[in-house]
């Protein structure tokens, strides 16, 4: 059955300002674009869909996020953006009520950041106990590396003043006892002892998460790091008819020998909308917690952050990825971490034919990537995926941590665009919402939460930003021949927006609504 979409602002993303009157789709693909008259000449019956002046674009492509973590986050109280301890308490109590959590069952919460709380401190033990008097409580900090537990939670896990002394990482203590604060391995190891949700609860959460992604106009999404513990959920996605959109997963490089055999039928090919795109490594932390590995010390300190992997391991990851013909994603925020990745890939390129392997290694986040490094990135055919939302969410902290000059230069989108370097723009959900229009808004406006303009010189146009979530994100996935523009022969992955982002005031772009999402010609989301 043919469908014709007409009477809207149809932005093809084939070139700046390229629009057509109508698009015809059939069997999940785009058959034809052109004028309404041309569509009328087509033989056979057609369904005509009147766009009523709304905008149609290629479906959005998520170049980096963590779908399973996002689904997990939906089973936890969301503390993102909380500005006071009282607000945290209120949100946790609302969560307990809304989800009918029985007394004695764990309550999990995530996303608070003490930097944004009045007094810039973590809640005390007394405050934690008041938040959920009848439930063991665990709260994960926004950074993921530290967290809090109330007295009931600590008791359930057998953490006492005595065991705290012996613990790895750091368990907070003062003269009155445990403070509820747990840092690094003390937090990470203990959180793993908390009972997981059931498979059924996970599947329900995955369903909700998928709906959310679709509501943001996304038709291809990512699993940024598959670990062995996630296997049951990945199998559910890969082997059932769960997925309504394409899902590309990257395996933890260090666990690849265990994981690759599990996905023999999905290596680099979609089956049930699921494919394995390659491997993933972490090279450093994040600039807001001063763990990103930088070449120049953080403002007013002699700290440089630190590397996670040794040079030879990074080189080995590059080499094996090239050998296996799969893509390598490396989380690198600081310029020193970016350089480690570039140098490792360069060494591999000197001994193997990386050109024909064409694995398009991705610098994920690349926040402090500099102009001299962009030259190397271009020369080596590497691919930066920028996390430009940081300008908004943490820009005010970057100004303090990095100093004005460096903070203004984070996510150098304009510099990259001027050098004709393709790049994508990601949300790193659940670190931020998988809201692609918000990312576009960040890229064109570069305003912090406090409204400070941060590096206006690196602002790009709305068209350039849209490329980062459509055609250039498709290129990152080696799918530019299939997706990313509205052209005959490509998949009918489309999104309908209430306004054309190319004709909207730059400041208003984040308010644009997704009205409908279409995957392979089928409507998979409609705005209620
Ligand atoms: Zn990352
Ligand atoms: Zn990530």
UniProtKB/TrEMBL annotation:
Domain Amidohydrolase: 49-525
Record-linked Pfam families: Amidohydro_3 (PF07969)
Signal peptide: none
SUPFAM superfamilies noted in UniProt: Composite domain of metallo-dependent hydrolases, Metallo-dependent hydrolases
Tree of life domain: Bacteria
PANTHER family xrefs: IMIDAZOLONEPROPIONASE (PTHR22642), PROTEIN LONG AFTER FAR-RED 3 (PTHR22642:SF2)
Protein name: Amidohydrolase
Record organism: Brotonthovivens ammoniilytica
